[in-house]
Design goal:
It contains 18 helices and no strands. The longest helix is centred in the middle third of the chain and has 37 residues. The two termini are 40 Å apart.
Length: 446
């Protein structure tokens, strides 16, 4: 129950963090309102940023946070300095991966000089974001969720301040959106490290068997045991989103991708909601998986799915189409240039958000290999649908614009189906068979 009481902090945390990216995306959608091609290149580099940032997150930070579950409450923050130092090299290396987006642009005939601002700013954002995101998650794990929300507040203020500063110095527009995101990540990272130091101040010098076990798990070799499957899954998922963006760009041009990006910005609140819930509910989902407790896992999932479905349907009613009571239609008009593009994007985000609890249960239950197998199926389905639609709409029409959200919708639906069998096997292994129950009952009566 205490976890559920922290849900408001998780929603505020995720909401403020996503408001930062929403502000950046809204600026991009506004300044390039009549230039969907440039908006498409922005979307391509944003996908590359998300792909690259997932590498240190999945390979290092999530396995390290899993090790922190050996402790309870604020003592988990004692591990923060060691986790950050171990993860810094992989975060720097991930920054180099962003340049892959420029190759896609060159194949499409875009000059490298036009892409250079996106390369530089996306690289900086990629180095900073995984570490910042880790500090927020660890603050949640330490049961100081409002501190995590403070980090996101700094991120939002950093994004607004970054946009204002870059406009003030007359920076070229291509340097501004992701450049402001990099500034926001840097400001909030400093805040996260400072808050982590403050909340663990009473636990300096702490030495317990659990802490020593957790510290012993924080080696590259130990983290790789879990991280090798998670990073494969993470790269495949975020990398597939990047590949989908690249395929659409090559087959149909950047303009349909730009329209899909505008719709994604409008639909983003549903994924924000799911991310906010997971900030608080991921730890109990992982713990239920660790303990093979199907009852607790279902209880957490019911809360997650109930809140997501209720608010998702409400948002769908307001934002799905261009009508007088939809303010987003005037803020991001490009999102509504293609009929039902926003509606498909909202449903796609809802399905992918609904898959979060199952994912965390598999991770907590050491079923990362099963998670990888399920993700292979789901990502192949996503790419197949998106590539087929981009090919059919190669003339740049509405079909090509729908390729990205339709593929994402198929990804979420397939995840929900593919996670179920390994979860059933996982929980069944901890449940007594009917014959065992009968034997036990007979023995008791006798």
């Amino acid at each position: 129950m205490r976890r559920f009481r922290a849900i408001p902090a998780g929603l505020v945390d995720s909401g403020l963090s996503s408001l930062a990216t929403f502000a950046v995306g809204l600026y991009a959608a506004t300044v390039w309102r009549d230039d969907p091609g440039t908006l498409g290149i922005y979307a391509l580099f944003l996908a590359a940023f998300q792909m690259a940032a997932s590498i240190p997150t999945q390979a290092h930070f999530i396995p390290a946070e899993k090790a922190a579950l050996l402790l309870e409450g604020r003592p988990r923050l004692v591990l923060m300095p060691r986790i950050v130092l171990l993860g810094l090299p992989s975060s720097v290396a991930a920054g180099l991966v962003v340049s892959a987006a420029a190759i896609v642009g060159i194949v499409r005939g875009l000059p490298l000089s036009d892409q250079l601002p996106f390369v530089v700013t996306a690289t900086a954002a990629t180095v900073l974001f995984p570490i910042q995101h880790h500090t927020r998650r660890l603050l949640h794990l330490a049961s100081v969720s409002w501190a995590a929300a403070t980090v996101s507040a700094l991120q939002f203020l950093g994004a607004i301040g970054g946009l204002g500063f870059l406009r003030l110095v007359d920076a070229p527009t291509r340097w501004i959106p992701i450049g402001a995101l990099a500034i926001a990540n840097g400001v909030s990272l400093l805040g996260g490290l400072a808050l982590g130091t403050w909340h663990r101040r009473h636990h300096r010098g702490l030495s317990t068997p659990e802490l020593e076990r957790a510290r012993g798990s924080l080696t590259y070799q130990r983290l790789f045991e879990s991280g090798k499957w998670l990073v494969s899954t993470g790269i495949m998922s975020t990398g597939n989103n990047f590949v989908v963006a690249g395929v659409i760009t090559v087959l149909a041009g950047p303009a349909p991708l730009g329209l899909a990006e505008a719709a994604r910005i409008v639909a983003q609140p549903i994924l924000v909601l799911a991310t906010g819930l997971s900030a608080v509910l991921a730890p109990p989902s992982m713990e239920a998986g660790l303990q093979r407790n199907r009852h607790d896992a279902r209880r957490v999932a019911r809360v997650f799915h109930g809140v997501t479905a209720g608010l998702g349907l409400l948002y769908l009613a307001v934002a799905a189409v261009d009508w007088p009571l939809n303010p987003l239609a005037r803020l991001v008009p490009a999102a509504y240039d293609v009929s039902w593009l926003v509606a498909v994007s909202i449903v796609a985000n809802g399905l992918n958000g609904a898959a979060f609890p199952g994912r965390f249960e598999l991770i907590g239950g050491d079923r990362e290999r099963d998670l990888f197998g399920a993700e292979v199926i789901a990502n192949v389905a996503q790419l197949a649908v998106a590539a087929a639609m981009a090919s059919i709409g190669a003339d740049g029409g509405s079909v090509a614009a729908h390729a990205r959200p339709a593929g994402f919708l198929v990804l979420g639906a397939t995840r929900l189906l593919a996670y179920r069998p390994p979860l059933d096997r996982h929980y069944a292994a901890a449940e007594p068979s009917p014959s065992m129950l009968g034997d036990s009952h007979s023995t008791t009566e006798g």
